[in-house]
Amino acid sequence: MAPAPAVDGATAQAMFTALQQRAAAAGITLRNPPPEPTTCCGRGCNGCVWEGFLSAAEYWRQEALLQLPN
């Protein structure tokens, strides 16, 4: 079963770890996941760096799932 899409930094890290473990067990090397942002001001800006990170995390998840056996 595939991990759910990330909704925050903690769930993103858990998802990265779960998929990397599945990949390692299958002998597959995935590209590095996107790094968490370090420049968030915490004001909930439109176009927040976390929105970009979560989009990149979802792209990484989809790419990883394509490489992993079902």
Explain what this protein looks like in three dimensions.
The chain has 70 residues and is an all-alpha fold. The chain is 51% helix and 0% strand. α1 packs parallel to α2 (49-67). The protein is elongated, with a radius of gyration of 13 Å. The mean pLDDT is 94. It comes from Acidovorax benzenivorans. Pfam families: Oxidored-like (PF09791). InterPro entries: Oxidoreductase-like_N.
What is this structure, in a nutshell?
With 70 residues, this protein is mainly alpha-helical. Helix content is 51%, strand content 0%. This is Oxidoreductase-like domain-containing protein.
* Count of helical stretches: 2
Poorly predicted runs of 5 or more residues: none
Q: Which structural category do the helix and sheet elements fall into? A: mainly alpha
As a percent range, the share of strand residues is under 5%
Count of β-strands: 0
- Sum up the overall morphology in one term: elongated
* End-to-end C-alpha gap: 8 Å
Percentage of helical residues? 40-55%
Please describe the biggest sheet, giving its number of strands, its sense, and whether it closes into a barrel.
none
Gyration radius, rounded: 13 Å
Residue-averaged pLDDT = 94
| H/E series | HH
Protein name: Oxidoreductase-like domain-containing protein
InterPro entries: Oxidoreductase-like_N (IPR019180)
Pfam families: Oxidored-like
Organism: Acidovorax benzenivorans
